[in-house]
Amino acid sequence: MRATEFTRPLETERLILRQPTMADVDPIHAFQSREDVCAYLLFSPRDRESVEAKVAESRTKTRLEKSGDYLQPTMERRDDGRVMGQMYLAVDNADAECLEIGWIMHPDYAGVGYATEAAEALLEFAFTVVGAHRVIATLDPANDASIRVCRRLGMRKEAHLLEDMRIKGEWADTGVYAILDREWSAAHR
């Protein structure tokens, strides 16, 4: 795995994945404040002040090198600049060259392939630029939409952990999906 700075936006046919700016606080708050969006996340709906603090923190996260490092790019639509969601890419285990990917979408933009398109760009970055050996997604096993994204990406289900963590005061299960660099390469030649 190579120490990597996220210095340039990633562009797809319909999207731009870029570092967040403070101008993103209101559009990010528009989905992070929703109960339906947070139902499958580790956090409860956030107020604007909390979102502002998280965006300020995320702006400084540009390097992937050691375990715990992460990026949280803003997902923006190319044609109108509308912020529709956020992506997540973190070093899960630097020694094992394993990264973790995730996404969060505003429901108004769900169901048309934006999350898959953004995740494909981030996986390409993870494998070809960062040099990851493996990328995982950990999610709530009841989150059917995210499971469909994982499957479209070619990720396989590797585990269903029962009551392995407390989320919002309740025991919760975790689903684990993964893809290896050689699997990604074979599918994208």
Protein model, in words:
The structure is a single chain. This protein is α+β, with helices and mostly antiparallel strands and 189 residues long. It has a single domain (11-187), classed as Gcn5-related N-acetyltransferase (GNAT) (Aminopeptidase), CATH 3.40.630. The protein contains 6 helices and 11 strands. It has helices at 25-32, 35-38, 48-59, 114-130, 144-152, 181-187; strands at 4-5, 10-11, 15-18, 63-64, 70-71, 74-77, 83-93, 98-105, 134-139, 156-167, 170-180. Strands 2, 3, 5, 6, 7, 8, 9, 10 and 11 form a 9-stranded mixed β-sheet that branches. A two-stranded antiparallel sheet has the order 1-4.
Q: Can you describe this structure in just a few lines?
A:
The chain has helices at residues 25-32, 35-38, 48-59, 114-130, 144-152, 181-187, and strands at 4-5, 10-11, 15-18, 63-64, 70-71, 74-77, 83-93, 98-105, 134-139, 156-167, 170-180. The protein has 189 residues and is an alpha+beta fold.
Mean pLDDT across the residues is 96
3D shape: globular
Instruction: Give the number of DSSP strands.
Output: 11
Beta-strand content: 25-35%
What is the helix/strand order? EEEHHHEEEEEHEHEEH
With helices defined by DSSP (H or I, 4 residues minimum), what is the helix count?
A: 6
CATH topology: Aminopeptidase
First-to-last CA distance: 21 Å
| Helix-and-strand structural type | alpha+beta
Q: Over all CA atoms, what is the radius of gyration?
A: 16 Å
CATH class: Alpha Beta
Shape-level CATH architecture: 3-Layer(aba) Sandwich
- Which regions have little confidence, pLDDT < 50, spanning 5+ residues? none
Question: Largest sheet, if any?
Answer: 9 strands, mixed
Helix content: 25-40%
CATH homologous superfamily - what is it? Gcn5-related N-acetyltransferase (GNAT)
> What's the number of structural domains?
1
